[in-house]
Amino acid sequence: MSDEEWAFFERFILTVRAPNGRRPTSHRLVLAGVFWIARTGAPWRDLPAEFGRWSSVYQQFQRRTLAWLWEKIMDALNESGAVQHALQMIDGTVVRARHQAAGAKGG
Predict the structure, then answer these.
(1) How many CB atoms lie within 10 A of CB 42?
(2) DSSP single-letter state for residue 20
(3) Is residue 12 part of a domain?
(4) Residue 16 domain-assigned?
(5) Is residue 107 part of a domain?
(6) How many other C-beta atoms lie within 10 A of the C-beta of residue 31?
(7) Residue 50 contacts residue 28 (beta carbons within 8 Å)
(8) What gap in Å lies between CA 48 and CA 82, rounded to an integer?
């Protein structure tokens, strides 16, 4: 992650605090680990050790998810114009197949 990219994400990342007050050793490294998981689609347990303990990175990811951080980042990216409007992402967890595709009777 470049310094310019980190400068954009840093203001969002630092707003979400751990309930116990502990901070990760490097917010930037944790974010890079989350991006690695998103890019590769690998299970959390396969996160390379260079990003820290997988369970710690996962806990940070969950905390930020519950704080709606990822949505705030996406909204800021859309408003900034840094991302082309032609670029879109479809998350497979929200795409539903028709019942015929699920092996329903007669399908």
Answers:
(1) 13
(2) T
(3) yes
(4) yes
(5) no
(6) 23
(7) no
(8) 29
